[in-house]
Design brief:
By secondary structure, this protein is of the alpha+beta class. The protein has helices spanning about 20-40, 50-60, 60-80, 135-150, 200-205, 250-255, 265-295, 305-325, 330-335, 340-370, 375-390, 400-425, 425-440, and strands at about 1-10, 10-20, 90-95, 105-110, 150-155, 165-175, 175-185, 210-215, 230-245. The strands form two sheets. Strands 5, 6, 7, 8 and 9 form a five-stranded antiparallel beta sheet that branches. Strands 1-2-4-3 form a four-stranded antiparallel beta sheet.
């Protein structure tokens, strides 16, 4: 068997295979021994018919074709092994007719994993830069704490911007109901965007129990062009209204939100937490900077199959996140006003970047000799069990795909650690030295930050 390998664009390999006629003869003998057991030939017990008789019954070409199919499969597999190719999918095999007595040539085109050409990543150098916390940032955080500890108090006056109302909101365009919200709670804000633009200013001045009808114009740049620029007719009934009573920034507030004796203690705690947050952000930025620099140096051809698989993985990740919010992908795409094909196309650049990053990190692992042992896998499973309280899995209980994913995850993390050692050693030492101190910082005093409510466009029904 003679094999030549051509590298085609887009990470494909073309295998040109030549088989000697003697190899086909031998393969046809194997085919005869298999087929004679399969067919009943009149006058002979099964498996006893001579080859010449079987050939007369099935045709000489049938035996050679049967042997050729097995020979092509075996020779292709051997060519892949001998040339150390990693196929990404089944090959496209071009098998011409057999010419008796002549060598047989066939061609197989197969998408393969291309080797990564790494750059001189050891010559790179980066440092950790942590921005200082400013007084303005401390004051902004304190203001957020004030807002989080505000209470909403019922009002007897007409409503103003900044108040929170509960109202029935009927919105119609050209006689068609676009939205019919009952007991909907929202904050009155200036400059609301989207289909409800201009509504808040019309509600200002209303009192509890009051109903008002008014019209606005939907913005020309509204995403639904069927409604953009048209007149919107409202009927709004204010059910209740409250104003935001913000506590004073003083020692009493500090005592109510945590174990603080004074405002200054709270202020100092806020500064430490902001410093902790900025350090984490700087570490993450350095990590990404190192990875991107190594990836940018590298050259690799990526077959579209890998990108398609990554896009599929990303869509599955999105589905899982949506399920946690009791949503599905169809509804998500409907809200985004995108088709499934448009969404897939939108994900392709990010998928391509993820594929290249993974391939480069795997290539660095090979060069640096980074591996993951069963003991390290078990340690990771034990840590996961301790963190989640779930039953401890043994490495032997993992399925092949589970094991592969876990190995890749751990190995790539170790590659990133190794790159930090090589490219940002001083920064890594600084990170490690401060890790214990940062671990003692704890949670932010007023809980996790949340996105503001009542300032974005309300979700529209499907027919809008």
């Amino acid at each position: 068997m003679k094999v030549t390998v051509e590298r085609a664009p887009n990470s494909e390999a073309i295998l040109n295979v030549e088989l000697e006629w003697q190899e086909l003869e031998k393969a046809s003998d194997n085919a005869y021994r298999k087929l004679v057991q399969k067919y009943t030939v009149p006058g002979f017990r099964r498996g006893r018919a001579p080859r010449t008789v079987l050939e007369r019954m099935l045709g000489r070409e049938a035996l050679y074709q049967e042997g050729l199919e097995e020979l092509v499969s075996e020779s292709y597999a051997q060519a892949i092994r001998d040339n150390q190719l990693i196929p990404l999918a089944r090959p496209d095999v071009d098998t011409p007719p057999i010419v008796f007595g002549q060598p047989y040539r066939f061609r197989a085109t197969v998408p393969v994993l291309s080797p990564v050409e790494l750059g001189d990543y050891r010559a790179l150098h980066f440092d950790l830069h942590v921005p200082e916390v400013t007084e303005a940032e401390v004051e902004e955080e304190l203001k957020r704490i004030q807002d989080e500890n505000a209470v909403w108090v019922p009002i007897e006056r007409p409503v103003q911007l900044g108040d929170r109302v509960t109202a029935d909101v009927l919105l119609q365009v050209e006689g068609r109901t676009i939205s019919n919200l009952k007991d909907h709670e929202f904050d009155l804000v200036a400059g609301r965007e989207g289909i409800f633009a201009g509504m808040d200013e019309q509600i200002v001045g209303m009192s509890e129990g009051e109903t008002k009808e008014f019209s606005t114009t939907i913005p020309e740049n509204y995403t639904n062009q069927a409604l953009a620029g048209k007149e919107a007719h409202y009927r709004v009934t204010v059910k209740s209204a409250r104003y935001k009573d913000v506590p004073a920034l003083d020692d009493e507030l500090a005592k109510t939100i945590g174990n603080y004796d004074s405002l200054e203690q709270l202020r100092a705690s806020v500064r430490r937490r902001l410093e902790h947050r900025k350090r984490l952000e700087a570490i993450n930025a350095l990590r990404n900077q190192v990875i991107e620099a190594v990836v940018d140096q590298a050259a690799v051809e990526i077959h579209p199959i890998l990108v398609d698989e990554e896009v599929a993985d990303m869509i599955n990740e999105t589905k899982q996140l949506l399920e946690q919010q009791s949503l599905n992908l169809d509804l998500f795409l409907q809200i985004q006003r995108k088709t499934a094909q448009e969404y897939r196309k939108e994900l392709e650049p990010q998928a391509l970047k993820r594929v290249k990053t993974d391939l480069v990190l795997d290539a660095v692992a090979e060069r640096e000799g980074i591996t993951v042992s069963d003991a390290e896998l078990q340690a990771q499973l034990d840590a996961y069990s301790k963190e989640t309280g779930k039953k401890v899995l043994r490495v032997s209980q993992l399925g092949p795909d589970q094991r592969r994913r876990l190995v890749l995850h751990l190995r790539r993390n170790r590659v990133i650690q190794r790159l930090l050692e090589l490219i940002a050693p001083a920064a890594l030492m600084e990170i490690q030295a401060s890790a214990a101190a940062e671990a003692e910082v704890g949670e932010p005093p007023a809980g996790e930050e949340e996105a503001p409510t009542g300032t974005t466009d309300m979700v529209q029904p499907a027919n809008s």
